[in-house]
Amino acid sequence: MNNLLFIGYGHMTQAILKGMRAFLNPQQNIIIAGRNPANIEPFLKQEGLDFIKLKACNTICVDDMVVFLTLKPYAFNQFTYTGVANAVLSALAGVSIATLKQHLTANVFVRFMPNIAASMGLSATTMYLEPANTPQTPHLVTLLECFGSVVSVDKEHLIDASMATNGSSLAFLSLVAQGLIDAGVREGLSYKQAFRLVQRSFEGFASLLTTQSPQDITTAICTPGGASIEGLSVLEDRGVRGALMQACHAAVNKYR
């Protein structure tokens, strides 16, 4: 799929392009379109992607392109789209395929929910296709795997639901990380020491999750009557688990 069109040039577009960097080359026809795509020029130069073409326009031709919709959801219907796209891949939270079809024509529609770790090639991405099985399906999965791992879902509403697990979750985990760093400083560590220890702990935790459940990890750490279970009891008493679930629910409901 050598004809790629990105509509939007914000943080998510940049994260995806950075994650895909090793798979992009000047022989491909890659375009970024929008009202002022020149805003992304410094990023493209920095990442060695300045072979990507920029088009400032209000009417966007999608003919024979694989189109990434990575702009803000409210801005989607401010453009006019012409032609028939090879495929449309939409990262627009809360914008259904039925709504996309009112503005765009394409052979395949894909909704996907990535996260900002796409910039490291580590996005956890959910994917829903309509129609579900076409000759293009393996190629579209491979395309999304350029910037992370892909979990396919069989119901469209689960794309918005996955904001709880992967879309917004890194923001919530960042709050946890900052809280742990602050706790380390409170107990006497320097900020640099606390940051490094929390950073490495998150890396270790991610590795543990590849073979163990969160409950298994908790059980292995918490000895009866020990310090860790004492701390966990405070978190449960303060309703941290419930607050996290409510935060995720609020994020999902924002676009339902």
Please render the helix and strand layout as text.
Layout: E1 3-7, H1 11-20, E2 29-34, H2 41-46, E3 53-56, E4 59-61, E5 66-69, E6 80-82, E7 84-85, E8 87-90, H3 97-101, E9 105-106, E10 109-113, E11 123-130, H4 137-145, E12 148-152, H5 157-161, H6 163-167, H7 169-186, H8 191-208, H9 214-221, H10 227-237, H11 240-253
Parallel strand pairs: 1-2, 1-5, 2-3, 4-6, 5-8, 7-9, 8-10, 11-12
Antiparallel strand pairs: 10-11
Helix pairs in contact: 7-8
Tell me the count of domains.
2
State the CATH topology of the largest domain: Rossmann fold
Q: How many helices does DSSP assign?
A: 11
In terms of DSSP E residues, the strand content is: 15-25%
Shape: elongated
Order of strands, widest sheet = 3-2-1-5-8-10-11-12
Mean pLDDT figure: 96
CATH class of the largest domain: Alpha Beta
Specify the CATH homologous superfamily of the largest domain: NAD(P)-binding Rossmann-like Domain
| CATH architectural grouping of the largest domain | 3-Layer(aba) Sandwich
The structural class is alpha/beta
Q: For the CA atoms, what is the radius of gyration? A: 21 Å
Report the span from N to C terminus: 32 Å
Enzyme class: oxidoreductase
Main location: cytoplasm
Function: Catalyzes the reduction of 1-pyrroline-5-carboxylate (PCA) to L-proline.
Organism: Helicobacter suis
